[in-house]
Amino acid sequence: MSRTRTLFEDPSYYLFKFRDSRQFALRITILSLSLLPMKQFLLLLSVILISSCATQKAINPNDVEPSIDAWHEAAAQADFKKYFDLMTTDGVFIGTDATENWQIAEFKAFSKPYFDKGKAWSFTALERHVYSENGVVYFDELLDTQMGICRGSGVMKMEDGNWKIAHYVLSIAVPNENVSSLTQLKKEWDAEYMKKLRAQ
């Protein structure tokens, strides 16, 4: 007759009973605490739960949105330094053209001539939704731009004590009834570019 192995006899056996090592570690912690006298167990469990709640504290959108607004404003004012200071050192910008997927150094090279002319681009938020999870902020927004209504979405990270843009995607918002016309307009270009991508 087979005998079930206990956790203390073979911890590695029980590791595979859980989806990941964090669940296993949590179970080990609870089991270890359960060996303590009841008062000590309850006290330590309370401390663990309070600490866990504290680390999951939601980020206030009001702490983040000024950085997004300042980033857009820096482009409108052609302030090259401020604009890129508000992006992380490993930032990424994805533009409306399928070829535009820039690491920050590439984006700087693309942007510099526009900033040097005294005005880069002017984006004003019409609406914005901000979310946060595990210390990371992500958002989407509708923008008033020189291209009409655009949609932006981004990820922000804390760097040097400030919230900065780590990843941003810009797209032109197209009404559903205009999609067929737009598809025909760019059909040949898309076909050539897809052929190029598939050949890589």
Automatic annotation (TrEMBL):
What protein am I looking at?
A: SnoaL-like protein
Q: Where is the SnoaL-like domain?
A: 67-175
Q: Which SUPFAM superfamilies does this chain map to?
A: NTF2-like (SSF54427)
Coiled-coil positions are none
